[in-house]
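Lab meeting, action items carried over

1. Structure of the two-component assembly. Owner: GW. Status: complete.
Input record:
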Amino acid sequence: MKRAFLAILQRDLQIAFRRVSEIANPLLFFIIVASLFPLAVSPDSDHLRSIGSGVLWVVALLSSLLALEGLFRADAEDGSLEQLMLSPVPLGVAALAKVTAHWLVTIVPLVVLTPVLALSFALPVGVLPVMAFALLLATPTLSVLVALGAALTLGLRRGGAIVGLLVLPLTAPLLIFGTRAIDLALYGESAVAPLYLLAALAALAVSLGPVAIAAALRVGVE
Amino acid sequence: MKLPRWFHLFGSPPFVYRLAGALTPWLGIIACTLLIVGAYWGLVVAPPDAVQGEVYRILYIHPQTAYVSMMAYVVMAVTAGIGYIWRIKLAHAVAVSAAPIGASFTACALVSGSLWGRPTWGTYWEWGDPRIMFETLLLFLFLSYLALRAAFEDRDKADRVSAILAVVGVVNVPIIHYSVLWWNTLHQGPTISKLDSPSMATEFLIPFLIMITGFTFCFYWLLLSRLKAEIVERERDTRWLQDALQGGRP
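Predicted assembly:
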């Protein structure tokens, strides 16, 4: 089972790195949208500091939605998803491997990039570790939710528009705990409690999420 | 596990159609009676509130609709889960029927709450209030369930896919609830909610309870009415339904 997991992960990573533009698009989107906010709201650094963490979180949620088309669709179209279903490997494990690949390829670069943007939003340097931790703990849950959205809309010809409706309300807790951790750090208090909660959500999502994704994939491929 | 025989009857559309047909008038009568009595008691008989005056009478609409909206979500998610696991089409039909009613009750709770907020809190909408945010997110969950269903042309597929969403949602509802409760506590204390005060004088409590029972019956009345329509739509090609609709007994 571990070998199958690693094989699927490796295959998905290989495919992803052959089409670098698809990795770059969500990142570019992230940078562009984040840099629109100072133009739209106010370039004043006090202002930016107060909205900064919230803006970065929301934009990160939105840009993680961009990459979901490639998550299962291509595999469903060329039949490799059906082969995965026929194989003795539980579909949940395969789904978890694909989610991991998605997380590594689209979200980790985003997490790496966020501190730079955070600095441009005049957030103090001391907050950055908390922010990076919060993002690292929240994004696995986010990846699972996005993959669930992609799997639920697999049977549709155009799934893109509706996935946002499905996924975004469910991400509210991530947003709340994530920005709360950063706020606490901004005020110089311990941000451990919201980080623990994010970790708990990640454990829940990574353990139960693949089951739901597999169920949705089975309906979608029929 | 061996189930009693009557249990299987609830998977049979003709039986449920007839049962719903027999129950709806009664549920309707009970719901209307309770709502009329409760409304009269609450709006006319009960004395005005010492602090809020007449405005407090939204107390007889607002918490009830909010309660029913959450109950509707649970009904929807549980029936959708039953439908998915045991592949019972009727359970899906119940879930589909519950969703728009739940969305409407959620919207009623939001609107009545914001109308109540204006005179008492001085604002129609307070982003910082956890209950408002929770109810808003609940509305979004209902609407995304309906949007996902509407996107599928094949009803069977729509049933099963939306059931997964409903079940994932029900796992998420408590998480959203608690996250929203804990949210914003850095800057301001939780808004004092009037229902949390354990003591409500009896003359307020009786119409309050009558209304909450009335709205619950109202929900099931609407649910069974919608369920009947849903069964008619799903079974329109079957013989028993055509017989039943032409007045004969199936």
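2. GW to write a short summary for the group page. Key points so far: Residues 186-194 of chain B have pLDDT under 50 and may be disordered. The two ends of chain B are 31 Å apart (CA to CA).
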